[in-house]
């Protein structure tokens, strides 16, 4: 089990392996197409529902094809759910959280993987244990803290508590233990390089693939985070999920508008999937081998 | 003294033992060499000592500062609250009740019901999800046309949020006007009142979870499958094993650690399940149905704390969830150790 | 005791924040400046033009802004700037308000309170609110006695002023009634069940026998339960604050009627405010629903053009109240004097009448009923029904409701658990009753 850096060179080696040289039969395609259809259908139907109106959605059989209200409904959802602000807020929140998590997790992960310091194992154990803490656990005291600091309804109320993640530290540690040769760090040390230099010129380049995966995972998770933002924020300054939750539960004129809101909230991520799908898939798979 | 590496061994022989990949040339070249000058050297060496001694703490510090403020502090505070009677209408008036909130939970049939639901929904969502992911990964591992499309397509549900996904499924699962019931009715199976039944509501909630996560897990399995050495299959084939037998006796055993990893992650997710049942329940969703038939622990906590305003009790539920997860993790560790030994 | 706990908690919080480090907080300063509403430093708040800013926190659609009342006030008082902070759902808004009250921070100058929470506020949070009973410009005699009483604490301090109330009528579908051989004229329909909810259920049985297939007499048994229950003075609590839900005549009668409706198949087995309920409006699958003024707008939106000329509204069997709100001025607010002036103005009969005209929120101040906008109000969607007169009539007969701190939880336990188990899950009334009581025990037990 010798660690190598997961670089693109590894791919051709993988290609020759396993069952990959076998061609898939018609049955394979049939099952995959069915499964893909199942994966995509709810998304497509969201768009169909968003293009109809309340009355049509209340009838049977339900609509199977697009109607003419898509643009109108998107517009209504946009204004009613404060969607423009919500999208902007979510981008800021998810971006900041992803950046913070990646940065802090890489630093801490490096320290845990390659450095020696007091209480290291105990601290690592603490980190792993908190991966199992249910998020609901912290809500009450967090809310009281946030209220005390008068952060209610402000973005830092959702950014700061999620700025670091135990999973991230664990993830980066696991990755760097394998991907970063200790000898490389040592050689730089012997040459008199400062810690900051080592971080910048050795650790970051080595960790880059994992940082990308962690950043993406964190961004998607933060974009879709639900439990805490709903409590900390209100419709006045919402993230997408807060806006959606209120669309789904309040006094709302039209079901298809709700679906249009859901579509708006998902669209940016879907767009990213369409544009960078290959990279995202590759990233998750690289992360998976290490994790 | 080798402050800068965690591996034991003689400092003089960096290349002894394991084969070491060539250092990244870019990285080494970028490191400046020390310059001459005695005073400078003394200063440098002092700085060097300080740097090596304290920088590890500086690296972990940001994480632990935030972690202490937003992770450990609320955890301990909740633990403290769970020993008190305290209402959301007066969170500052705490009345010490010792373990009352916990002993009360033991006799609280709503708690046991929520625990049972969390478990059954967990099984209903995790087992089919991982089995399907395994199967899909196996299929994706063949040489395929449009394999890139399939991979991206099965991952797209992962991009949707709980809220958006649940909104769609609530409509699809609608009793009177939902598409699923319309199809069931059309093929003569009759409509199902998805929300009212215990099994049906749990199946519906699980469906949302399965839909969102199967593709993601399939990719993780696929990555692990591609790392299985080909000669294992070849020798199995030589022994006359069919494809199915190869899958069973080569693929699955090689995937064990990955499977265990996904099981743990899914279990943690299942224990914390909250958004799907809440939104599936519609108005007053915190109850999880008229008989609490799909109320999970997360929902029960929410109902007690934010609807009934029993903060102390909600804290006790939260800590119970934490303890349950610790037990699950302990079991996982034991199983993992047993597996490692048996290999 | 109380103070010491709070001091300790504050110390812990402050310690946690200090631990965060000034630098880290500094990094977020940008965000906090952008944040809207809330926050702010102590002292009276002014905007760039030197106007005093009054912040008002509401939930749902209060309608002040939509009815143009803020604009009107700011025109009258150029030195004032009103900002509204709306939380969509009261069950998010209220826990937040409680937390803010406990922390004495994050409060708006004026805070709205829903009728389901007013008792808890008046009994447990009275010391956090200004006493409005003797404030200038506020005339107690303007309000309905019971409305005024609900916002008043035991020691006589009035912590919140009544805004709207929800006097109930009964909305019905003329087309479905005609098909079932029932009268369609609103006077005649009102007479069908005047004075007794049992008559209403009996009409339901007639409807069930003759009404068009695929439709039911009413939407939900829980809705019927609430409507009947709301017509009594004492429901879940008696005048001394004792819990009497187990054998109060109100609960007994309401439960019995709800069971008749559920077991007799008179209901659509729907849950109010659920998606399926909205869809049923669109499809017109039930014939009646109990209807406070704000419900008219809801029906119009959900039933849409398909329901045009089909709905009408008649008098309910008995006068009852469903919904309504209050506004109070927290002591921790920054501009208390100005806030009280604004609160008094917003709840004065003239403004309440305007709000009814624009937003269908019915005034809690009888002098408003004689104003033309109220007395002459008609609703074109509901067959030009004289809604002003109808609801004013209903409002006068509403009994003085006795409220308690856990009203909301108890009501939900009956409606969303006990009744729904019988109606949707086919359990027996005994099982449903037992389940509801167990639910309530769990909610009221500290």
TrEMBL record, chain A:
The chain crosses the membrane at residues 27-48, 86-110, 122-143, 155-177, 198-223, 257-276. GO terms for cellular component: plasma membrane. GO terms for biological process: transmembrane transport. It is a multi-pass membrane protein. It is found in: Cell membrane. InterPro entries: MetI-like, MetI-like_sf. Residues 87-276 form the ABC transmembrane type-1 domain. It comes from the Bacteria. Keywords: Cell membrane, Membrane, Transmembrane, Transmembrane helix, Transport. Belongs to the binding-protein-dependent transport system permease family. PANTHER family: ABC TRANSPORTER PERMEASE PROTEIN MG189-RELATED, ABC TRANSPORTER PERMEASE PROTEIN MG189-RELATED-RELATED. This is Sugar ABC transporter permease. It comes from Streptomyces agglomeratus.
Automatic annotation (TrEMBL), chain B:
Its main location: membrane. PROSITE patterns: ABC_TM1. It is found in: Cell membrane. Keywords: Cell membrane, Membrane, Transmembrane, Transmembrane helix, Transport. It holds the Pfam family BPD_transp_1. It comes from the Bacteria. InterPro entries: ABC_transporter_permease, MetI-like, MetI-like_sf. The keyword Cell membrane applies. The keyword Transmembrane applies. The chain crosses the membrane at residues 54-77, 119-140, 152-174, 316-335. It is a multi-pass membrane protein. GO terms for cellular component: plasma membrane. Residues 8-22 have a biased composition (Low complexity). Residues 115-335 form the ABC transmembrane type-1 domain. GO terms for biological process: transmembrane transport. Residues 1-38 are annotated as: Disordered. Belongs to the binding-protein-dependent transport system permease family. This is ABC transporter permease. The lineage of its organism: Bacteria, Bacillati, Actinomycetota, Actinomycetes, Kitasatosporales.
From TrEMBL, chain C:
Keywords: Signal. Coiled coil: none annotated. This is Sugar-binding protein. Pfam families: SBP_bac_8. It comes from the Bacteria. Gene3D superfamilies: Periplasmic binding protein-like II (3.40.190.10). InterPro entries: Bact_solute-bd_prot1, SBP. It comes from Streptomyces agglomeratus. Residues 1-29 form the signal peptide.
């Amino acid at each position: 089990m010798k660690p190598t850096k997961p670089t693109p060179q590894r791919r051709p080696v993988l290609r020759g392996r396993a069952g990959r040289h076998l061609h898939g039969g018609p049955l394979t395609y049939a099952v995959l197409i069915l499964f893909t259809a199942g994966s995509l259908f709810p998304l497509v139907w969201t768009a169909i529902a968003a293009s109809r109106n309340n009355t049509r959605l209340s009838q049977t059989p339900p609509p199977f094809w697009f109607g003419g209200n898509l643009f109108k409904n998107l517009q209504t959802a946009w204004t009613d759910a404060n969607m423009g602000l919500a999208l902007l807020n979510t981008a800021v929140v998810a971006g900041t959280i992803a950046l913070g998590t990646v940065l802090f997790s890489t630093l801490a992960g490096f320290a845990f993987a390659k450095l020696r310091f007091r209480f290291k194992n105990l601290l690592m154990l603490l980190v792993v244990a908190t991966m199992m803490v249910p998020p609901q656990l912290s809500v009450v005291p967090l809310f009281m803290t946030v209220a005390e600091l008068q952060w209610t309804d402000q973005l830092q109320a959702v950014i700061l508590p999620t700025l670091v993640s135990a999973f991230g530290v664990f993830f980066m540690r696991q990755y760097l233990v394998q991907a970063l040769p200790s000898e490389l760090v040592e050689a730089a040390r012997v040459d008199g390089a400062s810690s900051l230099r080592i971080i910048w010129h050795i650790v970051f380049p080595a960790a880059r693939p994992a940082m990308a995966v962690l950043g993406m995972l964190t961004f998607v998770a933060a974009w879709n985070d639900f439990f805490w933002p709903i409590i900390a924020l209100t419709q006045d300054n919402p993230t997408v999920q807060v806006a959606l939750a209120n669309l789904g539960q309040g006094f709302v004129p039209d079901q298809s508008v709700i679906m249009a809101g859901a579509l708006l909230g998902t669209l940016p991520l879907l767009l990213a999937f369409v544009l960078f799908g290959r990279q995202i898939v590759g990233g998750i798979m690289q992360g998976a081998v290490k994790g | 003294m080798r402050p800068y590496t965690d591996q034991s061994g003689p400092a003089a022989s960096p290349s002894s033992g394991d084969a070491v990949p060539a250092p990244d040339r870019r990285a080494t070249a970028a490191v400046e060499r020390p310059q001459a000058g005695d005073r400078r050297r003394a200063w440098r060496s002092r700085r060097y000592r300080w740097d090596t001694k304290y920088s590890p703490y500086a690296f972990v510090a940001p994480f632990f500062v935030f972690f202490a403020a937003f992770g450990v502090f609320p955890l301990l505070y909740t633990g403290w609250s769970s020993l008190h009677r305290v209402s959301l209408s007066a969170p500052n008036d705490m009345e010490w009740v010792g373990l009352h909130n916990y002993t009360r939970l033991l006799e609280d049939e709503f708690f046991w019901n929520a625990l049972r639901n969390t478990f059954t929904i967990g099984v209903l969502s995790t087992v089919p999800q991982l089995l399907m992911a395994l199967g899909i990964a196996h299929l994706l591992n063949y040489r395929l046309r449009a394999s890139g499309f399939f991979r991206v397509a099965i991952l797209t549900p992962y991009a949707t949020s709980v809220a958006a996904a649940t909104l769609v499924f609530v409509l699809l699962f609608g009793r009177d006007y939902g598409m699923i019931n319309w199809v069931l009715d059309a093929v003569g199976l009759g409509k199902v009142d998805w929300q009212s039944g215990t099994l049906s509501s749990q199946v519906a909630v699980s469906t949302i979870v399965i839909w969102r996560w199967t593709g993601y897990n399939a990719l993780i399995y696929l990555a692990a499958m591609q790392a299985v050495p080909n000669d294992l299959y070849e020798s199995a084939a030589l022994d006359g094993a069919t494809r199915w037998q190869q899958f069973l006796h080569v693929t699955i055993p090689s995937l064990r650690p990955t499977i265990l990893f996904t099981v743990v992650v899914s279990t943690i997710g299942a224990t914390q399940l909250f958004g799907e049942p809440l939104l599936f329940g519609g108005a007053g969703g915190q109850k999880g149905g008229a008989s609490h038939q799909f109320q999970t622990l997360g929902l029960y906590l929410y109902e007690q704390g934010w609807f009934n305003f029993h903060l102390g009790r909600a804290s006790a539920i939260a800590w119970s969830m934490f303890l349950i997860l610790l037990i699950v993790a302990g079991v996982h560790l034991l199983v993992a150790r047993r597996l490692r030994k048996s290999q | 005791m109380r103070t010491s706990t709070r001091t300790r908690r504050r110390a812990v919080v402050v310690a946690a924040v200090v631990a965060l480090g000034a630098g880290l907080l500094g990094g977020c300063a940008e965000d906090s400046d952008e944040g809207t509403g809330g926050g702010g430093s102590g002292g009276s708040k002014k905007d760039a033009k030197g106007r005093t800013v009054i912040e008002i926190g509401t939930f749902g659609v209060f309608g002040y802004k939509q009815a143009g009342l803020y604009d009107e006030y700011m025109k009258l008082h150029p030195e004032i700037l009103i900002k509204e902070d709306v939380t969509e759902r009261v069950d998010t808004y209220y826990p937040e308000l409680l937390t803010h009250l406990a922390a004495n921070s994050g409060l708006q100058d004026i805070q709205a309170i829903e009728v389901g929470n007013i008792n808890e506020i008046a009994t447990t949070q009275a010391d956090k609110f200004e006493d409005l009973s003797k404030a200038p410009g506020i005339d107690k005699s303007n309000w309905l006695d019971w409305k005024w009483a609900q916002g008043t604490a035991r020691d006589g301090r009035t912590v919140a002023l009544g805004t709207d109330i929800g006097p109930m009528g009964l909305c019905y579908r003329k087309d479905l009634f005609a098909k079932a051989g029932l009268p369609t004229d609103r006077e005649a329909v009102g007479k069908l069940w005047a004075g007794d909810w049992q008559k209403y259920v009996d009409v339901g049985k007639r409807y069930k026998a003759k009404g068009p297939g695929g439709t039911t007499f009413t939407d939900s048994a829980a809705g019927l339960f609430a409507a009947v229950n709301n017509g009594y003075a004492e429901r879940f609590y008696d005048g001394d604050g004792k819990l009497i839900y187990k054998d109060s005549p109100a609960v007994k009668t309401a439960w019995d009627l709800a069971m008749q409706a559920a077991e007799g198949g008179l209901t659509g087995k729907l849950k109010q405010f659920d998606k399926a309920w909205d869809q049923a409006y669109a499809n017109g699958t039930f014939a009646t629903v109990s209807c406070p003024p704000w419900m008219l707008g809801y029906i119009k939106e959900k039933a849409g053009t398909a329901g045009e000329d089909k709905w009408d509204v008649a008098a309910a069997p008995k006068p009852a109240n469903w919904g309504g709100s209050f506004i109070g001025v927290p002591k921790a607010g920054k501009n208390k004097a100005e806030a009280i002036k604004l609160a008094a103005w917003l709840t004065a009969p003239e403004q309440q009448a305007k709000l009814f005209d624009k937003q269908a929120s019915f005034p809690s101040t009888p002098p408003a009923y004689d104003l033309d906008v109220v007395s002459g109000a008609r609703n074109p969607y509901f067959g030009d029904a004289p809604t002003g007169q109808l609801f004013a009539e209903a409002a006068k007969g509403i009994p003085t409701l006795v409220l308690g701190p856990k009203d909301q939880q108890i009501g939900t336990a009956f409606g969303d658990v006990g009744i729904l188990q019988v109606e949707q899950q086919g359990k027996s009334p005994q099982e449903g009753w037992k389940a509801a009581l167990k639910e309530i025990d769990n909610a009221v037990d500290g």
